[in-house]
Design brief:
The complex is a heterodimer of chains A (113) and B (111).
Chain A: E1 5-7, E2 10-13, E3 19-24, E4 31-37, E5 43-50, E6 53-57, E7 65-68, E8 75-79, E9 88-95, E10 103-104, E11 108-112
Chain B: E1 3-5, E2 9-13, E3 18-25, E4 31-37, E5 44-49, E6 53-57, E7 60-65, E8 70-75, E9 84-91, E10 99-101, E11 105-110
Parallel strand pairs in B: 2-11
Antiparallel strand pairs in B: 1-3, 3-8, 4-5, 4-9, 6-7, 7-8, 9-10, 9-11
Classes of the chains: A mainly beta (113), B mainly beta (111).
Amino acid sequence: EPEVTQTPSHQVTQMGQEVILRCVPISNHLYFYWYRQILGQKVEFLVSFYNNEISEKSEIFDDQFSVERPDGSNFTLKIRSTKLEDSAMYFCASSAQGGDEQFFGPGTRLTVL
Amino acid sequence: GQSLEQPSEVTAVEGAIVQINCTYQTSGFYGLSWYQQHDGGAPTFLSYNALDGLEETGRFSSFLSRSDSYGYLLLQELQMKDSASYFCAVRDRGGGFKTIFGAGTRLFVKA
């Protein structure tokens, strides 16, 4: 069964450093998303991406964040200068239809020290 | 603003039926989804309602009333493995496919 994959599973970084989180969405999906979840809290929407551009972003997704689809399979989230409060689980998701049944990857746990 | 409200915790016994309610307040509305998340795992899609009524998928059913801005997830014949967090989520009607999640309901299934 096709699945969304994410690497790395865990990333530890120093405050102020740049990180790139990687995702491979399901191959025939056209809509891609990034979410974050602070431990024990709800899933928060960061950004949606369709047709090689951002469709919508939340207020969390400020200038420190960017997304890219560098080739036909990868979808990345970059945080330019990490802050302590960026520590969270970051989930990538994809869907065949916009916003509907979304398939989530296993997540990357980001720890900022 | 946009908000979804669901109970924080529900406890039930194996074999029972449990209903998890969700009320939403959004600037636009396109559909209501439900996701299951086990501890340490990723959210897993359960169901999606765009129209009023009941959708049934095996032991799980989901209901939507657009006029009441209300929906629920019904879990029947509860099993221990159903112990997880359940999130309702609303797809915003804006063109950007933004999905807003509720705070989640932690379901504890007891033997």
